[in-house]
Amino acid sequence: MVNTICSVVLPGTSFTGKPATPSDGWKSPENWKKLAKDMSIDEVRSILGDPERMNGGTIGFWYYPNGGTVTFFIGQVDGWGEPRAQ
After folding, report:
1. Phi-psi region of 38 (alpha: psi -120 to 50; beta: other; left: phi over 0)
2. Burial track 35-46 (b if 16+ CB lie within 10 A, e otherwise)
3. Which residue has better confidence, 76 or 14?
4. Model confidence at 67: pLDDT above 90
């Protein structure tokens, strides 16, 4: 099996990136403001929760509802976009 951010980040999930434990942390604008470049995957998960879906390998993309995204490069935050207001 190819070692990708999808399979490493959420053990037990398939390559389709289904989250193991959904969370609503992403709904809080204050939580998005806590993100910082070079944060670890675990730090992002503890703030926003697991994404709705994921894609990637060396460069990974986490997708949250309403257009929220987090981009990782080799397991560290490289950038993000906050979701649209609900």
Report:
1. left
2. beeebebeebbe
3. 76
4. yes
Q: What is the pLDDT of residue 86?
A: 67
| 82 burial level (CB within 10 Å; 0-12, 13-18, 19+) | middle
Structural tokens at position 38:
């070079």
The structure tokens 């879906």 sit at: 53
29-63 tens-digit pLDDT: 999 999 999 999 999 999 999 999 999 989 999 99
Whether 61 and 81 have beta carbons less than 8 Å apart is answered as no
DSSP string, the chain: ----HHHHHSTT--TT---SSB-SGGG-HHHHHT--TT-BHHHHHHHH-B-SEEEESSEEEEE-GGG-EEEEETTEEEEEEPPPP-
